Amino acid sequence: YSIAAVVLLVLVVVAVVVAVVFQTKEKDVEKQIVAATAAPTPPPTPMPTSERWTMGVREQIEELVGMDKVGPGAPADTPYVKARDWLLEEDPMQLQKDSPFIVQRYLLALLYFSADRDGEWRHCAPSDDEDDQECKAVVYDQEGMPYNDTFARMLSGASECDWYGVRCPGGDNFVREIEMIENNMTGTLPSELAKMPVLQRLSFIMNELEGTLHAEFGDMKHLIDIEFHYNKFSGTIPDSFYNADNLIRLNLGGNMLDGTISPKIKNLRSLVGLFTFDNAFTGEIPKEIGELDYLSYTRFSYNEHNGTFPTEIGQLTNLIELYSQWNKFTGTLPPTIGELTYLEDFFVNNNEFRGTLPIKFYSMESLTYFYCFDNSFSGTISPLIKRLTNLERFIIRRNYFTGTIPA
Fold first, then answer.
1. Which residues pair with 281 in a beta bridge?
2. pTM to 2 decimals?
3. What pLDDT score was predicted for residue 54?
4. How far, in Å, CA of 385 to CA of 401, rounded?
């Protein structure tokens, strides 16, 4: 019996040990399953550690656009980060930290990643094919005539001065002009373009760019030309634009802008061309416009302007074009328009003007085209019209004129 008892005791102990071991392993397996299936908190994406990231170029980019946009933890899918990664990792040129062209090359890459939202640039988009790094595109000469030329593709290993739409006419390889016309650009313009040190011209005509006009553009001391017509910009004209006293041309036509034209327009003393047509601007044309001594071309047409023409418009003695059709202008034409002796194109049709044509109207000896149809003008056409020897079109239908047109 004692032997049997001992055997029985051993069997009980073994059974207990086996049960404990089994339960312990079972719990370990459960822990492993839980650990394997639980969703861990993802850590921030670490900064790459290649040599290029520690050579001083990255720090210049961070200082240029801000740590919040390109620093550790910044979202990886933004144009800012994409441009940074391209410059550091993919750019065949591999600029060193002492290069004076880091800023402009990064900003041009930022422009591409910001304004290619749909990935369908019409001209000279980047190519992964090493044998396809050049392209042909239509560009325009100083007279606005189109011609074909050959360029390096965007983000190629060539100098950015050779990329499509980029011009460095100063001979020092600094970018002074960006012109990309009808290029199917979508998305927004980065405000940091204003940090290009000597940029003089921004031209993005006939694209699909949207967003508001960046106030920073008005602070560019070298900027002389803004051509943003036929895009989808919205909002008002920033106050800073009225401080750009070197600006020669401001073309914002064909967008979705609104608000009024500020009396601060008088500050643009160098302005030759002012184009705000085909938007939703309201209010009067400020009398201060008469202080723009060099203004030669202006188009306010297809807006919601109202009120009367300011008499000060007669001070614009260099004016050649005055387009103000399709608005809600009222009152009479001021006699001072007779001072516009260089005016060739004068369009006031489809407004609410009334009264007679002032006698001084017939002093505009350069007048070539005059459209005043669809208003409420009245009176007769003076025999003095014979003074207008350059007149080719004189369209006055749907008014209240009486009498005959003198031979």
1. 259
2. 0.86
3. 64
4. 15
